[in-house]
């Protein structure tokens, strides 16, 4: 499990899965099935969106989802998108 840094974000070397579990799973569920936030897994609306849509949503927020611009670097956001895509492909 990734450790959160003193700035409130995950370790710079955290994997996409670790970042997702630390930050995203509280709203989107660890299995990407959704909850407070929408489902992100296989068959979800997110699965039909392109990578840039997901990156922009994570970085800038959308609707009730907050921006993670101050919490995650571009590289960390890319890792989260890669992780979400890998789960979507498994389904």
Question: What do these coordinates show?
Answer:
By secondary structure, the protein is mostly helical. It has a single domain, classed as Orthogonal Bundle (Cytochrome Bc1 Complex, Chain D, domain 2). The chain is 44% helix and 0% strand. It has 3 helices and no strands. It has helices at 16-28, 51-60, 74-90. Helix 1 packs across helix 3 and helix 2 crosses helix 3 (74-90). The model is unreliable at 1-7 (pLDDT under 50).
What structural keywords apply?
Cytochrome Bc1 Complex, Chain D, domain 2, mainly alpha, 91 residues
Number of helices: 3
Under CATH, the topology can be stated as Cytochrome Bc1 Complex, Chain D, domain 2
Number of strands: 0
**Name of the CATH superfamily:** Cytochrome c-like domain
Flag low-confidence runs: 1-7
Number of domains: 1
Order of helices and strands: HHH
Sheet of most strands = none
